[in-house]
TrEMBL record:
GO terms for molecular function: 3'-5' exonuclease activity; 5'-3' exonuclease activity; DNA binding; DNA-directed DNA polymerase activity. PROSITE patterns: DNA_POLYMERASE_A (PS00447). One of its GO terms (biological process) is double-strand break repair. Its EC number is 2.7.7.7. The keyword Nucleotidyltransferase applies. InterPro entries: 3'-5'_exonuclease_dom (IPR002562), 5-3_exonucl_a-hlix_arch_N (IPR020046), 5-3_exonuclease (IPR002421), 5-3_exonuclease_C_sf (IPR036279), DNA-dir_DNA_pol_A_CS (IPR019760), DNA-dir_DNA_pol_A_palm_dom (IPR001098), DNA/RNA_pol_sf (IPR043502), DNA_polI_H3TH (IPR020045). This is DNA polymerase I. The gene is polA. It comes from Azospirillum lipoferum (strain 4B). It is an enzyme of class 2 (transferase). The keyword Transferase applies.
Length: 971
């Protein structure tokens, strides 16, 4: 493509060409603008681990679209480093009234920076300055170098930068912004914008301005007098008395406001101008990042387009086309660049803030006597914050590299145990290398620490201590008692924000801890912690223990104030050792069974592919949405199809399902192919790689503070989403096997959420049915449709079952209609009849929504708060989504609480009975155990008793048990 052609295409897309015809132009992307636009453009989406990712998805889509439309060779994304900056030094109230970002957005900020890096785009931020200051500085530098600049943003504060050679592009309106657009907005040319803003102020950023003067009046005054200083010098000549008095009285406030809104064009650039270029992406890194978020649609588009026709070679040193060209047809085609059609799922170096303590003293402990002094200090204070450093994030196999302790705020130590050992362990002797540092032998250090870590009179405090518990358990130490600052925060604020230590430190302590990457590096240059020099290790590790203690000191009293002590003490705190032991136990996998299943799936995929090619009349890549769309709609003429801006047809699951319902076999076969391909990649192939070479078992990690409802979530690998009802899913579960001489025991709650609906809404008819042990779906059908139980048909029962479960999740008439294969009107009539018959449910649902709107959260039967940040959203769709969440959350959250109560009581109950059963997995309403074959029946009886007695409600809890050689047999 010639430069002239590229420029004309950019103009057609609405993006001004930041180019001199030689590819030297620069696009500066306002990262914050992209983030908030993306967040509000998409409904709430989460990864399987519960992390919100809707803004990450929208941001990634917008980057793709920008790269595709602009085809730029120089792009940088600019972010705010933190809220406080140099403006707060002379005006502390600057942006003081700006509301906190939505809680579900906060954990996405770091992921969005990671997304930028995955796209191999420069990621710019600088402590003490705002993103706008960096944009101003780079715009000046580029202009002085003779390069054109396009600022990609809709932020009015950046309009002061518009001038010859510097333009703006509003990605929301797909509109270029030049001097004319600035004049239309402010009534003055760009160079006078700062003076107008100084007078008018800005309530959002808490820029005071002059009371009573708006933008229109300010523009008139600046036009008449030339600039702010000239106006203030002649304020006494203003004819209007009130305006004259305001300008005289608030003259200094206007000058301060001008300093606040004037962008600094001379900040130290974090990267040289010539480094702000679009680099050839690391394809695998980008794909891995997108897959980790669950962004299947983007992954498919990027994989196909990046590798198509060899445009981007597979490997380093490629001389392929620029990334913007390669990604062009992978860009989203939706009208809103953030909201591309998709089947996606449902941190930063910054200035340190001095803590409010007399001084910070961190000590490197390298001999046993010094360690004993710290142990004695812990006995004196009765409190000891503890953190561990390892060479990996897998506690079942990680090496304990060091331990940090803190006994009071500002006083902490680091005990190195295995630094400098990796080279010798690898057998690579370097005679020029310095000798390993002086360290206490691990066994000796553990012997000294054991007494205090197991001392019931000393409270140990950790942050996500489940990880540390496993490390100490492997060294023969059962740490107790323990408080967990992460779980305290989680109990207090639930899904309102993330609960990582760094995030909480910034939120509650106004302190930014040392980033891990600052100590260990990133990417290919990242080192493990055992290779970190001791001075850096001390600063990083001791700070972790120190901050943990500070957070605990701040947050623990709130449990009493917020009346959340019972939730913490009876549900979440006791769960730490229970889940830690469960993770450490792991589950045995039959690798050969998985391998055989993978091969079987490969054969079936090949057979389906052959069928699809025969139906299409030609060969093509089934995994390519673009090629599939052309086959379906151009070659086979199966309808008109729906094209996006890239010209490719949409072939997502909803499109294929509609074609399949119309009787087009090829669509159904493609759906079959996709389902099997996902099972193969996600489970049968991936699970084999997750088998620990040390234990021979798979050790999933259960996140204790990730969901809004209190549920545990499984990650790395996720063992909670294995399909239950499909034959392929059953085969995968058959690969989860018991050790020789043992059986697997599966016990799950029967219809617990329906029982809780009956209890919480006090639906007498349903409560009676559960007490009488009736078939609840048949009983519901009898109540709703007026059909006696002895005349019940399977079809009517199926409809009642669909409504029963659909009501819990706020199903619509359209959704129920699709599920039952009936018209939406008929489905709506079913729902209406259901709510009329069970009027208590409708009353309860309305009361829950009202409570959520009033308080911002809903509450489980045991007092856990589930926050609903979108319940007051002005957008009707997002508000309706939050209302459905508000109805489901107390049900799902109460079920999660009951399961936690059962899990917490389980170890003691099994031990009291002399059972050797080990809890391996928790999958929502199910617990999986491994138990000696001779004890299986007794263990089943014990576990059922604990689960059924975990709560005493107006309806009985029923737990059903199964025993087998593998998970499928037991389930």
């Amino acid at each position: 493509m010639t430069d002239a052609t590229a420029a004309s295409q950019n103009d057609a897309a609405g993006i001004p060409a930041a180019s001199n015809g030689d590819g030297s132009g620069l696009y500066l992307v306002d990262g914050s603008g992209f983030i908030f636009r993306a967040f509000h453009a998409l409904p709430m989406l989460t990864r399987p681990d519960g992390t919100p990712v809707n803004a990450v998805l929208g941001f990634s889509n917008m980057l793709l679209k920008l790269l595709a439309d602009a085809r730029a060779e120089a792009v940088a994304v600019v972010f705010d480093s933190k809220r406080l900056n140099f403006r707060n030094e002379f005006y502390p109230d600057y942006k003081a009234h700006r509301p906190e970002p939505p809680e579900e957005l906060k954990p996405q900020f770091a992921l969005i920076r990671e997304a930028t890096e995955a796209f191999c785009l420069p990621c710019l931020e600088l402590e003490g300055y705002e993103a706008d200051d960096l944009i101003a500085t780079y715009a000046r530098l580029a202009q002085e170098a003779g390069r054109k600049v396009t600022i990609v943003s809709s932020d009015k504060d950046l309009m002061q930068l518009v001038r010859p050679g510097v333009g703006m592009f509003d990605p929301m309106k797909n509109k270029a912004i030049g001097p004319d657009e600035v004049f239309e907005k402010f009534g003055v040319p760009p160079e006078k914008v700062v003076d107008v803003q100084a007078l008018a102020g800005d309530s959002v950023d808490n820029v005071p301005g002059v009371p009573g003067i708006g933008v229109k009046t300010a523009a008139q005054l600046i036009t008449e007098y030339g600039d702010l200083e000239a106006l203030l010098a002649n304020a006494e000549k203003i004819k209007q008395p009130a305006r004259r008095q305001k300008l005289i009285e608030f003259a200094e406030q206007a000058r301060i406001s001008r300093r606040l809104v004037l962008l600094d064009e001379n900040v130290p650039p974090p990267k040289p101008l010539d480094e702000l270029r679009v680099r050839e992406p690391d394809h695998q890194r980008l794909i891995d990042f997108l897959k980790a978020q669950g962004f299947r649609s983007i992954v498919s588009r990027v994989e196909m387009e990046m590798l198509k026709d060899g445009r981007i070679a597979d490997g380093a040193g490629s001389s392929a086309a620029p990334a913007s060209a390669a990604l062009a047809s992978a860009a989203p085609a939706a009208k809103d660049p953030a909201a591309a059609p998709s089947d996606e799922p449902a941190e930063r170096p910054a200035r340190k803030t001095v803590l409010n303590v007399p001084e910070v003293r961190y000590e490197l402990v390298q001999d046993a006597d010094a360690l004993r002094r710290w142990v004695e200090r812990a006995r004196e204070t009765g409190v000891l914050a503890v953190d561990t450093e390892t060479d990996s994030l897998t506690p079942a196999t990680a090496t304990l590299v060091g331990v940090s302790l803190s006994t009071e705020p500002g006083i902490a130590c680091y005990i190195p145990l295995a630094h400098g050992a990796s080279t010798a362990a690898a057998g690579q002797l370097d005679f020029d290398a310095p000798p390993p540092p002086v360290q206490i032998p691990t066994a000796e250090a553990m012997a000294i620490l054991k007494d205090v870590l197991e001392d019931s009179s000393v409270l140990k405090i950790g942050h996500n201590f489940k990880f540390d518990h496993q490390l100490f358990a492997r060294n023969g130490i059962a740490v107790s008692p323990v408080d967990d600052s992460m779980l305290i925060s989680y109990v207090l604020d639930g899904g309102a924000h993330g609960h990582g230590m760094d995030e909480l430190a910034e939120m509650h302590l106004a302190y930014t801890p040392i980033p891990f990457k600052e100590v260990c590096g990133t990417g290919k240059n990242q080192i493990t912690f055992d290779r970190v020099p001791l001075d850096k290790a001390l600063a990083y590790a001791a700070e972790d223990a120190d901050i943990t203690l500070r957070l605990w000191t701040l947050l623990k009293p709130r449990l009493v104030d917020d009346r959340m002590v019972t939730v913490y003490e009876t549900l979440d705190r006791p769960l730490v050792p229970v889940v830690a032991d469960m993770e450490r136990a792991g589950v045995r996998i039959d690798k050969k069974a998985l391998s055989d299943l993978s091969q079987s799936l490969s054969v079936r995929l090949a057979e389906i592919e052959k069928d699809v090619h025969a139906l299409a009349g030609q060969s093509f890549n089934i995994g390519s949405p673009k090629q599939l769309g052309e086959i379906l709609f151009d070659t086979l003429k199966l309808g008109t199809g729906k094209k996006g801006k890239t010209g490719a047809y949409s072939t997502d699951s909803s499109v294929l399902e509609e074609l399949a319902e119309q009787g087009h076999t090829i669509a159904q076969r493609v759906l079959d192919w996709r389902q099997l391909a996902k099972l193969k990649s996600t489970y049968t192939d991936a699970l084999q790689e997750k088998i620990s070479p040390v234990t021979g078992r798979v050790h999933t990690a259960f996140a204790l503070a990730a969901t809004n409802t209190g549920r545990l979530s499984s990650t790395d690998p996720n063992l909670q989403n294995i399909p239950v009802r499909t034959e392929e899913g059953k085969k995968i579960r058959r690969a989860f096997v018991a050790s020789p001489g043992h059986k697997l025991l599966s016990v799950d709650y029967s219809q617990i959420e329906l029982r809780l609906v009956a209890e919480m809404a006090n639906i007498q008819a349903l409560k009676d049915a559960f007490r009488d042990g009736l078939d609840i779906h048949a009983a519901t059908a009898a109540q709703v449709f007026g059909i006696p139980l002895d005349q019940m048909t399977p079809d009517i029962r199926r409809k009642a079952k669909a409504i029963n479960f659909g009501i819990i999740y706020g199903i619509s008439g359209f959704g129920l209609g699709r599920q039952l294969g009936i018209a939406p009107g008929e489905a709506n009539a079913f729902i209406k009849t259901y709510l009329e018959r069970f009027h208590e449910l409708k009353v309860w649902m309305e009361s829950i929504k009202s409570f959520a709107r009033q308080h911002g959260y809903v509450v489980t039967l045991f007092g856990r708060r589930c926050y609903m940040p979108g319940i007051q959203d002005k957008n009707a769709a997002r508000r309706a989504f939050a209302e459905r969440q508000a109805i489901n959350a107390p049900i799902q959250g109460t079920a999660a609480d009951i399961m936690k109560r059962a899990m917490n009581r389980m170890p003691a109950a099994l031990a009291a009975a002399g059972s050797s059963a080990r809890m391996l997995l928790q999958v929502h309403d199910e617990l999986l155990f491994e138990v000696p074959e001779a004890e299986a029946e007794d263990a089943a009886r014990i576990v059922r008793g604990v689960m059924e007695g975990a709560a005493h409600l107006g309806v009985p809890l029923v737990a059903e048990a199964g025993i087998g050689d593998n998970w499928e047999e037991a389930h």
